[in-house]
Amino acid sequence: MTQRPCPHPHTAHGECAPCRLCRIEVEHLSVSAGKQVLLSDVSLHVHCGELTALIGANGAGKTTLLRALLGQVEYSGTVRHLSSDGRPAAAVRTGYVPQQLEFDHSSPVTVMDFLAAALSRRAVFFGVGKRTKEKVSAALARTHCEQLAARPLGALSGGELQRVLLALALTPQPDLLILDEPVSGVDQNGLESFYATVDELKRSNHMAILLVSHDLDVVRRYADRVVLMQGTVIKQGSPEYVFDSPEFEQVFYTRGGRI
Fold first, then answer.
1. Residue 71 backbone class (left: φ over 0; alpha: ψ -120 to 50; beta: rest)
2. What is the rounded end-to-end Cα distance, in angstroms, of the chain?
3. Alpha-carbon distance 46 to 37, whole Å?
4. d(CA 14, CA 33)
5. Dist CA 249 CA 259 (whole Å)
6. Model pTM score
7. How confident is the model at residue 217 (pLDDT cuts 50, 70, 90)?
8. How many CB atoms lie within 10 A of CB 73?
């Protein structure tokens, strides 16, 4: 696979600011469950400062790949986290936004309570301390939803809840942000707002972002690189390169139209 330089951000003095995590190299990764092969010989690179989108039909192995990268399933092959000098990156932090959060929607737990419980060792029924409130407020401000702090979690719209989960995934600052169908079922306004925030975070924080999405319009607009999967990687490159390929046509279209 072709190596390319890491596009570092620059400091105020003009010198190149090194990335803690420059890239993730996945080489020949395979996952099996008993005799069933879920993924076979997957190789790809995920770079800092870029949004890499995984696309493919249902059952293509996208979520399995995410689970392998999160350490939730065993795999063969190699996953390397490298810094800008090509050395192993130590203590890589990963933030994760799931497709949905399962919880009791009738619960009176507020957004402040939910994040405070995650960001503090103190039980929230003892009250939320000043420092924790400040931490929660700062986290929510990063995704432009600090006004939601006092709202019950169950009263949030789908888009609002996903922005809260994004705020949590960003605290502390991750080196890799994984988004697994993060706005499935969210209305158009919520979708646009969510991805505009993600794009802003990518640019300002230079983090590596790995997205699974079935929304090809979103992928075309926001992805820097696209990986088309069908049990393995069958095409990867820029959105234009992948979307214009025969492999894309084969996966997403039939004679009768789009699948």
1. left
2. 31
3. 23
4. 50
5. 10
6. 0.85
7. very high
8. 16
Segment (H or E) for 229: strand 225-229
The Cα 137–Cα 121 span in angstroms is 17
Q: Return the SS3 of 29.
A: strand
pLDDT digits (tens, 9 = 90+) for 128-180: 888 999 999 999 999 999 999 999 999 999 889 999 999 999 999 899 999 99
User: In the chain, what is the greatest distance between 2 CA atoms, to the nearest angstrom?
Assistant: 62
The identity of residue 10, as a single letter, is H
For 142, the enclosing helix (H) or strand (E) is helix 130-142
H/E element, 45: strand 36-47
Q: Which amino acid is at 176?
A: L
Q: Are 227 and 51 in contact (CB under 8 A)?
A: no
Q: What does 171-227 look like in DSSP terms, one character per residue?
A: SSPPSEEEEESTTTT--HHHHHHHHHHHHHHHHHH--EEEEE-S-HHHHHHH-SEEE
Pairing of strands 176-180, 208-212: parallel
Kind and range of the H or E run holding 25: strand 23-33
CB atoms within 10 A of CB 234: 18
Q: What pLDDT is recorded for position 232?
A: 97
* Owner of token pair 């009250």: 127
Query: Nearest CA to 116 among 104, 102, 127?
Result: 127
